[in-house]
Write a structure and sequence with these properties.
mainly beta, 13-stranded mixed beta sheet, 1 helix
Length: 193
């Protein structure tokens, strides 16, 4: 459990880490499996007081990290996190992060496993100075979390997609959003020097 002045805000049950400590000798944290039977996130933790000495730059890892398998069987997100309704999800994924530089690759598959089914799949790779690849899709049946958070009348089924690939000097992505009869939109966006 993790707690702050208001009490416990995070509970993790049956956490499991399988890793290769010998890989650290070659500068890599090699994690075969990171899993948990259940995670309960009741609320956000209380904010820490700001320290003017804290750097605002993105952190650079001193070693490379590979995570072959992330498996979270049941994650309960409290009502305070999601605007009034709790959600129960499962998640699987994998990631690869280089040492000393921004970048990496990974994927995440999230399924809502309570009474409001939905899925989110995200994958991407960033090679600094060379290429950015992104793909994401969110699918929800009616009365889902996205429709509720956006207060879409009638709470219709929602589909969101995002795709993009290319060098950062000439990167183009596309996005679509559909929410029943309430919204049907498409957009293209670009990154140029």
């Amino acid at each position: 459990t993790l707690a702050d002045a208001d009490g416990i805000w995070l509970t993790v049950t049956n956490a499991h880490l399988a890793w290769n400590p010998w890989a650290l000798l070659s500068g890599t944290a090699s994690i075969d499996t990171l899993s948990a039977a259940s995670i309960d996130v009741a609320r956000q933790p209380l904010p820490k007081p700001e320290d003017p000495k804290d750097k605002k730059d993105l952190p650079r890892l001193p070693i490379a990290v590979t995570l072959s398998r992330l498996a979270l069987d049941r994650v309960t997100l409290g009502a305070d996190l999601l605007g009034g309704s709790p959600a129960v999800i499962s998640a699987t994924g994998q990631a690869r992060l280089p040492s000393g530089a921004l970048g990496g690759a990974g994927s995440l598959d999230v399924k809502r496993i309570d009474d409001r089914p939905g899925t989110l799949t995200v994958s991407g790779e960033y090679v600094p100075g060379r290429r950015l690849t992104l793909a994401a899709q969110a699918l929800e049946q009616g009365n889902g979390l996205i429709a509720e958070l956006l207060d879409i009348p009638g709470r219709p089924a929602v589909t969101l997609t995002l795709k993009g690939d290319g060098p950062l000097t000439d990167w183009t992505g596309s996005a679509t959003a559909k929410a029943g009869d309430a919204a049907d939109a498409a957009a293209e966006f670009r990154i140029r020097p």
